[in-house]
Records
---
Amino acid sequence: MRDRRHLVPYLLLLPPALLFAVFFIWPLITLTVISFYDYSRMTGMVEVFTLKNYQRILLDEFYLAIVGHTLQLAATTAVLTVVIGYPVALYLTVARPRARAAVIFFILSPLMISVIVRSFGWVMIVGPKGLLETLLSAVGLPGGNILHTEAAVLLGLVNVLLPFVVLSIATALQAIDPAVPLAASSLGASPWRNFLSVTLPLSLPGVLSGVLIAFSLASSTFVTPAVLGGSQFKVLSTMLFQQAVVLQNWPFGAALAITLVLIVLMAVTLQFRLVERGRYKAVFQ
């Protein structure tokens, strides 16, 4: 019996490992295989190995522009959510319990509503005759109808992803030993210097995690760009839907999906490298 105890952790990991393999690894392998198939408008998917789908993505200026637009949108969303979320997370570390509970409820409340409902709610705010246009016209300012623009998509994405970033940064800030900033203050550091030299560097793992979450989700989201951006707003997720569902070109849709997965994997790898480099410097400095 004692010799078999070391098998207990592996037995406990077996069910989730099987679920992960069946519902993630195997579909991903299947998707990768399909991405190398050909496509014919007459017969549909042709099981012949070809690189034309990836050549189309990498060599066609139209699809290269879509990849670049997806990266730009995801990066901008990540930066905006961190800029907005960091002060909120910083406030959560010093707020009283009631105020902290109220802020957390306010931050998490959008997660109780479907992304589709929230996106259509933003349509009522930034669309024609919406709340934003009504308020601006009341004070004599033009504009307000920003529906089907990148600004509308960014508003929707920041609203959706802000809770994840705030919680990620707040967790890193709460893990900081209070004695460290106090020691810096006792040595003559001003509050601003204390923040730049102590608090911000120690919270960078949480910031990087928040950036990764926002970037990954923003680069792969479909509902918000489709609703707030309109049919002319092209990103990888909307093109994937068009190719796989509307045009039934599954091989090219699979190639777009694999491209999106590779982008997220590169972002994850970069985040791990930055975190490990920060730990390495912290140990040897």
Note: The mean pLDDT is 87.
---
Amino acid sequence: MIVLIILGIILVVAGITLKDNANPLSKFSGTIRIVGFLVIVLGVFSSMFKQIDAGKVGVKSLYGNVQPDVLESGLHVINPLLDITIFDTQTQNYTMSAVHSEGAQEGDDAIRVLSNDGLEVVIDLTVLYRVLPGDAPKILKGIGENYTDKIVRPITRTRIRDNAVYYDAVALYSTKRNEFQQRIFKSIEDDFKKRGLVLEQLLIRNINLPTSVKASIESKINAEQDAQKMQFVLQKEKQEAERKRVEAQGIADYQRIISTNLTDKQLQYEQIKAQKELAASPNTKIIFMGKNSGSVILSDK
């Protein structure tokens, strides 16, 4: 739009210059001036309309003076002299990672911190945030458009380093990870809010420990697993021993009852019952009875 206005002014000036000139093009000076005026009008008319896309707001400034109200999404009629700066109010993310292709910046951009026990811990992190629409003029006036590099990145890295010193390296890696994440979220959230930004989520993607510490942790985990395995084996053996003891006690009780209550008549009855079962077997040929009963020979059917 400004380009059209400038172009129209140039055409008008050129038309006026050619009017009093002996140049062969002087006969077109009137036409050139008319075209110039039309271009200026078109430029002014176009500058009066500004479309703001969804999820964005426009911050108005006139000769460097930032105005407090913002343009919401939609079509607006504005002063052609206003300069409109667009701010994205949708959720944005900023990733700092040791993997070269994942971070917002090229190369290893992970955060290196010192833990409470003096070990270097490498943290990969993603910050989800957005701009408060009503605070966009304050951001433009106090910070500028590049708020990501001026606010998001340095505050996040600083707060993580400030809070990591309260934890041991192994605790950061395991038991205290969620606590650490909540702690730095709170501190970063407060800093962002003062500057017109909303921290939506803080994602600790990875925590890398020194190689020696990793080896120590793995050795400890293996030892704990071996101890749990041995405990399981001992428990199983104990249960098996208890089962055998109960079984032996049952046999002993049975034998005691039999030896106490068994009579001659009962023995004779059991003998006859066993002989009948043998007689019913197809493989049985001869059955020997007791001393007083003789013997019985059974032939095949």
Note: Helices lie at 2-19, 29-47, 136-142, 147-164, 169-173, 177-194, 211-261, 264-279.
---
Amino acid sequence: MEAGIVGLPNVGKSTLFNALTKAGALAANYPFATIEPNVGVVPIPDARLEIIRRHIESQKIIPAMLRLVDIAGIVKGASEGAGLGNKFLSHIREVDAILQVVRCFTKAPGGEDITHVEGTVDPIRDIETINTELVLADLETVSGALGKAERAAKSGEKEQVARYEVLKKLAPVLDTGKPARSVKFDDPEQAKALKGMSLITSKRVLFVMNVDEDDVNGEGPMARLVRDYAAKEHAECVPVCAKIESELAELSDEDRMELLKSMGMEEPALNRLARAAYKLLGLQSFYTAGPKEIRAWTVPIGATAPQAAGVIHTDFERGFIRAEIYSVADLEKYKNEKAIKDAGRMRIEGKDYIMHDADVCHFLFNV
């Protein structure tokens, strides 16, 4: 699962991406890897890992990781190939969710003006520019596929019928400028067909408000406009000052904490952004803990115990017998696994168990 960072030119998109990846590289005990240019893997800050380590001695901690893609900047006309439109659209189709960086700052780090592609700073106009290009790209895809889908549906095969019904419902909605995600598909076959189309506007969106240094909490007039817009779209938004985050990423732990304190911040805003992106992707963490490592593993919300075991190793899923599970809250309350068992809080779960966020697991398997 991965999220793509998108935005107009000069909104701070790449600055945020670089700050995220640098923060991941510098954080103690946080493994980091750059997979290819403009693609990075960053850790998900998780206080529960330290709670576990307080009660289970271990050599190291490994957090859950999030894959981020810094996608080529979009300009008006991208859906028709303007700028790097074709590259932008091909990359954004491959990600699972979108982090849309919106400019809510007025000055550059040195105090000078940064030229906006439209000449003025207007976050809602910027959002709608990108949304329009994405909708137009999807409309072209849907319109081009409708005729073939209609002919294929005449076969009566349920997959082909479902695909045609989805396309038929989406075409008029996209034509009015609304995204594909605004259409609800309760029929399982149609929902499956929609997922297989990889439409850009069916992806979930998180608005990242790149704010001025004196508005780190995103309470200024421009940020408020974005908050109101996101609320109407049933979307989340996170305020981030790219300049501050870039500085924090370059500092030692001690200096970082001092700068955060001076600005009235408890943690880097990028921590909140990483957690929000994790949630946006519909992901949750479970843990394994032992003397060698305490590790957070990532599964989609709704995953079963065997599927979770398979994230560790495919053999674990294939030979799954049962899982011994307790919560981080249980560990914090009872202090160790023996006390958890004595209190009757250690659960034995089978193949139908649906994983909960913050489960700590021992998997039993046979291969």
Note: The longest strand covers residues 97-104.
